[in-house]
Amino acid sequence: MRFFMYTLGDESIPMPPPTPELMAEMGAFMEDAFKSGALIQTGGFAPSAMGAKVDLANGAYTVTDGPFSEAKELIGGWALIEAASKEEAIGHAKRFLGIVGGGEARIRQVFGPEDGAPR
Known about the structure:
Layout: E1 2-9, H1 20-36, E2 39-44, E3 52-57, E4 60-65, E5 74-82, H2 86-100, E6 105-110
Helix pairs in contact: 1-2
């Protein structure tokens, strides 16, 4: 099963650059996860000020440039993983949060026509 994991970000809190120790630990974690086949792809997002929102209502499109001050939650970073179960995906999220020292990760199963209904 594939799962989309993401962390929440808060653009009002400045993020210090990662320490060399954190980069080394995160690099080892990602290398292990890629080699085992658990980590498929990962990434982060640019600030919402660089984004846009597209709405369609009554046949008319409205495009609004960021930042999105009304957003209560913004995705900070994400990973697409392969796991045998939701419990295994939770284990990956716990390991990640332990490395970065806290935060919140959310997990959503990804499924397509080949997978049938979500489990």
